[in-house]
Amino acid sequence: MRRTLRQLAAVKPSRYLEAGAPTGLTGLFTHPSPRPTLLYLYSTTLDKLKQFPENSVYRQSTEAVTKHRMSIVSSVVPEGYAQWAEKAKKILAEHPDVFNTPEGGVEHDEGRHVKETRAGQTFVTTKVDPEYDDTVVEWDGEKGEAELEGVRTTAERKGQRVLGKERPGIDTKTVEWEPEPALTAEQIGEIENRIGAGLIEEVIQVAEGELKLADIMLQSKVWEDLEEKPVEGQWTYFERK
């Protein structure tokens, strides 16, 4: 039914879903790259769960669900994935200094590409710098300095770059990074059917919530005993017989 809503919401049905197009659910739009996003979220959650004791019931149950869904998503491979993966490994191997820089990876038009390792898998994520609107952001009280106009002294011009020229020592090396090939609408439907939790965008929302919950549960140390012990028979009514 929900996939029917997605199809009805699309004006021109095609083999691939259009990123940002309506899904048929209010406020929920088609995700541009659901497969790598889910694999990254699941891998990060599994890494987080390793910090819990092995006998933690929360860890055991969450790991089971996460690994199950992760296996479903990873089993559906987009067309051209093998060629893309081979090219990606080659780029990472040829430019290790670029992707491992402390500043945060490769600069490009949409942000910065950063290499990360989660659950033994390598991901290249995109970090986008937030845009600030001076007309919206509230003034924090800090006084700024007015920019000087006119001819500058030699000391003031030091460090400036002449248009069209680069100062010696600047690394002008650029790396072109291509995103993972997209899944077809049929492949996305297969994942949605096998997971059985609605649209893949809803599955992503659940995965994001599970990761946030793992952080909260870790901070709360839920595996430890209660500071105030329950009185005898307090939970008897809720026991499963």
Kindly describe this structure.
It is a single chain. The chain has a domain at 17-79 and 184-224. It is built from 8 helices and 3 strands, in the order H-H-H-H-H-E-E-E-H-H-H. It has helices at 2-9, 34-49, 57-75, 81-94, 96-99, 154-157, 185-195, 200-220; strands at residues 106-108, 111-118, 121-127. Helix 2 runs antiparallel to helix 3. Mean pLDDT is 78; it is low at 102-106 and 164-172.
Distance between the termini: 37 Å
Mean pLDDT: 78
Poorly predicted ranges: 102-106, 164-172
Number of strand elements: 3
What is the C-alpha radius of gyration, as a whole number of Å?
25 Å
Helix content: 40-55%
Tell me about the largest β-sheet. Answer: 3 strands, antiparallel
- Structural class by helix and strand composition: mainly alpha
Using the alpha-carbon principal axes, give the shape.
extended
Number of helices: 8
The secondary-structure element order is: HHHHHEEEHHH
* Order of strands, widest sheet: 1-2-3
Short description:
Belongs to the complex I NDUFA5 subunit family. The protein is mostly helical and 241 residues long. It is built from 8 helices and 3 strands, in the order H-H-H-H-H-E-E-E-H-H-H.
